[in-house]
Amino acid sequence: MNLSCSQWQDNSESVKHFAFAKFSAAAEQCLLLFTLILLMFLASLTGNALIALAICTNPTLHTPMYFFLANLSLLEIGYTCSVIPKMLQSLVSEARGISLEGCATQMFFFTLFAISECCLLAAMAFDRYMAICSPLHYATRMSRGLCAQLAVVSWAVGCVVGLGQTNYIFSLNFCGPCEIDHFFCDLPPILALACGDTSSNEAAVFVVAVLCISSPFLLIVASYGRILAAVLIMPSPEGRRKALSTCSSHLLVVTLFYGSGSVTYLRPKASHSPGTDKLLALFYTVVTSMLNPIIYSLRNKEVKAALWRTLWKKPLTRG
């Protein structure tokens, strides 16, 4: 049921505040969901912060692969912090409102971090391609300067897309209703509240999603196609196993992130439903951010050793 916007409108009848829809009318369900999401949020923040700290403080991890991983962890921290705190507040409080400016700010940062992560995952795939397919030239080609440029471009693309999409959507007029049938200011649910014809805005969202989700994904597929071809002709089974193990964590993260993102933003509008969209959004904003540090730490001995040294200030003993 939509909230009344009368107290949040000016004389021009334009909405100045929004309100997030309640997850459930049952207080027990909201409390249970609050507890689960809070635990996952804390796990995500802790895991990603530890990985970034371990990489920054351990010289042995100052390589291109771990440089990109540290950037990924920082993106995940920003990604979750732009969405989850407000959602947690809405779960246990009646203060579910957000100003028009606050909603635009949340949309900008969410879009910035999400698009930057798409680009960064492609850069990580390129790094693995260079390491496996061109090992003799890897150190010179994947220089610190190139790695920094790839990271800056990833963040810059996210910033430009975030500014463009947010400005384009919030140039529309919102005259009611004001209840967002979602738990954060995502693009489709905000567009659903705009007055007048929004077909051009919807087309822009779809085009940006295709370019910023599909294009990096195609680069990832191309990189791993070349990697697979190189691995298949390796004479040593041990060499093949080692090459594939260095890619497995990244492939798993790509599958989780791109899978949920593609289903959310690239499927036809007619197939969207608020319930499904919320479940998918919970997955790619909370679950994947929590799983990423687990995936990388459990499947990477160097990261585990660095985390151990960071936490306990001593080398990891074996046996």
Topology, pairings included?
Layout: E1 17-20, H1 27-57, H2 64-81, H3 84-92, E2 97-99, H4 100-133, H5 138-141, H6 144-169, E3 179-180, H7 187-191, H8 199-232, H9 237-265, H10 274-298, H11 301-312
Parallel strand pairs: 1-3
Antiparallel strand pairs: 1-2
Helix pairs in contact: 1-2, 1-3, 1-10, 1-11, 2-4, 2-10, 4-6, 4-8, 4-9, 6-8, 8-9, 9-10
Describe this structure in words.
This protein is mostly helical. The chain has eleven helices and three strands, in the order βαααβαααβααααα. A three-stranded mixed β-sheet has the order 2-1-3. Helix 1 packs antiparallel against helix 2 (64-81), helix 2 (64-81) runs antiparallel to helix 10 (274-298) and helix 4 (100-133) runs parallel beside helix 8 (199-232).
List keywords for this structure.
three-stranded mixed sheet, 11 helices, 3 strands, mainly alpha
Outline of the structure:
This protein is mainly α and 319 residues long. It has helices at 27-57, 64-81, 84-92, 100-133, 138-141, 144-169, 187-191, 199-232, 237-265, 274-298, 301-312, and strands spanning 17-20, 97-99, 179-180. Strands 2-1-3 form a three-stranded mixed sheet.
Largest sheet: 3 strands, mixed
Share of residues in helices: over 70%
> Would you tell me the structural class of the helices and strands?
mainly alpha
Outline = globular
Q: List the strand order in the largest sheet.
A: 2-1-3
